[in-house]
Amino acid sequence: TEETLVLVKPDGVARGLTGAILARIEAKGYSLVDIRLVEPDRGTLERHYAEHEGKPFYEPLLEFMMSGPSVAIRLAGNRVIEGFRSLAGTTDPTTAAPGTIRGDLGRDWGLKVQQNLVHGSDSPESAARELAIWFA
Ligand code: ATP
Fold first, then answer.
1. pTM, two decimal places
2. Residue 95: CB partners within 8 Å, gap ≥ 6?
3. What domains, with CATH codes, occur in the chain?
4. Cα(102)–Cα(21) distance, rounded to whole angstroms?
């Protein structure tokens, strides 16, 4: 089995979609190993998003991620890294496939940063790194 870090981002929590998102994750058969409400400081987000430093959406992304609480989830299951990213859909909510979290529930607000409801680690290395940041 494998573990990944999932975040329900501030837009998901603010819109009251945490339960709907968790329902999809649980229905798929993945296991919640740990879950908590988080209000990350800038340093935590700089570590989490280090690969994006300098990109045009970097500052708006950090501001967005500090705009309200998120829910951090340690999720386990067979091929859960790939599986959750498939459940989430692609980055842009406008073009994310229907049936996915972002495709069904995500809205394009016309902002500099995609407020696309969730984050999921993209590789085993990222998952280990990110789980150490959010579940220290
Ligand atoms: P995916 O890997 O499926 O694209 P992700 O959440 O892992 O999703 P990253 O590429 O790691 O996406 O980017 C982190 C976050 O930064 C995105 O979820 C989104 O909120 C924002 N973002 C990424 N690329 C853009 C972009 N081109 N324009 C606006 N916001 C973006």
1. 0.97
2. none
3. 2-134 (3.30.70.141)
4. 10
